[in-house]
Write a structure and sequence with these properties.
This protein is mainly alpha-helical and 466 residues long. It folds into 2 domains: 196 residues, Clc chloride channel, CATH 1.10.3080; 196 residues, Clc chloride channel. Helix content is 74%, strand content 0%. Helix 3 runs antiparallel to helix 6, helix 11 runs parallel beside helix 14 and helix 16 crosses helix 18. It is globular. The termini are far apart. The N terminus and C terminus are likely disordered.
């Protein structure tokens, strides 16, 4: 008995010494802020998801009550969403992904204050409030891009709260990991979050932050799953009984979707450049006209232009109403172009997937594909359109794969991603996010330089004494 006790004590001492080594202690301390930030991200993402769905539900209830009310709701909500951005944080507008990309490039000591203009607590509140107003008015926006900026802001805040004596990774790693955790929590797609961080955001090798990245994605994703359940964003569509001949239809769908995604991006940027000369009065007038255009199209042509488009995707994949008319895809593209240029908060991930689904649906109807064969074209269209917008083919394929848990069609989705990426490059060599990132970088740097120039000018003598 005594020998067993001595042996147990020795074992415990060995274990304590192992844990007490400097390297392991440092790794644990280094990981704790990431774990805490990941938990917060998961909780906020779940709350945001519920509020977003609730806002969409309120709009539908109002429209079922009196459909004409959309002519009041849409313009008013568009204006209030824009006003929220103007009053509280101008850098909370749009998707949020270009802001995160810009913040990653600004991670150096001399740009410390500039990052706070792109990622902060004020950004979180403004982003959520503005996007909820937009979707309440029927705006064709998604919550996934905003969730990425929200998550990046949470990780940025936790990084700043961490004591200076605390062993920690670089600010760049924190923001990168936060973006990946945000996407994983928004879509319940952990692999998609990891691939997105590497393909779209990372400027450093993954080996420098891989442990933090994987653990953050897992914790944020599990937190979301724990509160929402182990859900799939789009369920389990039937994609059985596929023949090799379907590859031709997949290729056609992918090319059309890739071109559509790239054209949508060019449309967004072209309208944005046209609006740059607007004063406040013209901007408000544009908001009211944009709201009336969306309302008119929804009331008289097709209500599918409204909202994130998730209902459209679920209807196409899981009901017999798989075939949408040709104008649905044009309306989804137009909805994204108009709503993104309101200057309010809102992403393009979900609207891009919905537009791609409508393209796949239309190709399926033209080629007379029936049953489960239509589903593979719908999924291919989703991958292709998202690739056309983001130029991240592997992220797009992995996201759709994880949303539907259809591993049997991974090769179909990969082919769709690669073909759509090539087709999109013909229209424009750069992604929407890459071009918007440059605008945010220019704005943030210009804002910081302006006060410095004013200070220098005020300190200069008005006349040189003789």
């Amino acid at each position: 008995m005594k020998w067993e006790l001595v042996k147990l004590r020795r074992t415990g001492k060995f274990f304590f010494d192992l844990i007490g080594t400097e390297r392991i202690r440092r790794n644990i301390l280094q990981a704790l802020p990431f774990w805490f930030a990941s938990l917060l991200t998961g909780l906020v993402a779940v709350a945001y998801t519920k509020m977003f769905a609730y806002s969409e539900g309120i709009l539908q209830d109002i429209l079922h009550w009196h459909a004409w009310f959309i002519f009041i709701m849409t313009p008013v909500c568009f204006f209030l969403a824009w006003l929220t951005i103007q009053l509280f944080s101008i850098n909370a507008r749009g998707s949020g992904i270009p802001q995160v990309m810009a913040a990653i490039e600004l991670t150096s000591p001399r740009h410390e204050s500039k990052i706070d203009k792109l990622l902060s607590f004020r950004i979180i509140l403004t982003k959520i409030g503005s996007s909820l107003l937009m979707v309440l008015g029927g705006g064709a926006i998604g919550r996934e891009g905003p969730t990425i900026q929200i998550a990046g802001s949470i990780f940025r805040m936790v990084n700043k709260w961490t004591p200076s004596s605390w062993p920690k990774l670089s600010k760049q790693s924190f923001i990168l990991t936060g973006a990946a955790a945000g996407l994983a929590a928004a879509f319940n797609t952990p692999l998609g979050g990891v691939v997105f961080a590497m393909e779209e955001l990372a400027k450093i090798h993954i080996r420098f932050f891989r442990t933090a990245l994987f653990s953050a994605v897992i914790i944020a994703g599990l937190t979301a799953q724990g509160l929402l359940g182990p859900y799939l964003y789009l369920g389990y569509p039937d994609v059985g009984k596929l023949h090799f001949s379907i590859m031709l239809a997949v290729a056609i769908t992918a090319i059309l979707a890739g071109v559509g995604g790239s054209l949508t991006s060019k449309g967004i940027l072209s309208l944005m450049r046209w609006k740059k000369s607007f004063n406040r009065t013209k901007t408000i007038l544009f908001l009211l006209v944009a709201g009336l255009i969306i309302a008119t199209l929804a009331f008289f042509v097709n209500g599918e232009i409204l909202g994130s488009g998730k209902v459209l995707m679920n209807t196409a994949l899981f009901t017999n109403n798989k075939y949408y008319p040709w104008h649905t895809m044009l309306l989804r593209m137009l909805g994204s172009i108009i709503c993104f240029n309101t200057g309010a908060a809102g992403g393009v991930f979900a609207p891009a997937l919905a537009a791609g689904a409508s393209i796949g649906s239309y190709v399926a109807s033209v080629s007379e594909m029936i049953g489960s064969n239509a589903n593979i074209l719908i999924l291919s269209g989703m991958v292709g359109f998202l690739t056309g917008v983001t130029r991240t083919p592997f992220t797009s394929a992995i996201l759709v794969l994880e949303m539907t848990d259809r591993h049997s069609v991974i090769f179909h989705l990969m082919i769709a991603a690669l073909l759509s990426n090539i087709a999109a490059l013909v229209v424009d060599k750069h992604s929407l996010y890459e071009q918007l990132k440059k605008d945010y970088l220019d704005e943030v740097i210009k804002d910081d330089q302006a006060p410095e120039q004013e200070t220098v000018a005020s300190e200069m003598p008005k006349s040189i004494p003789i």
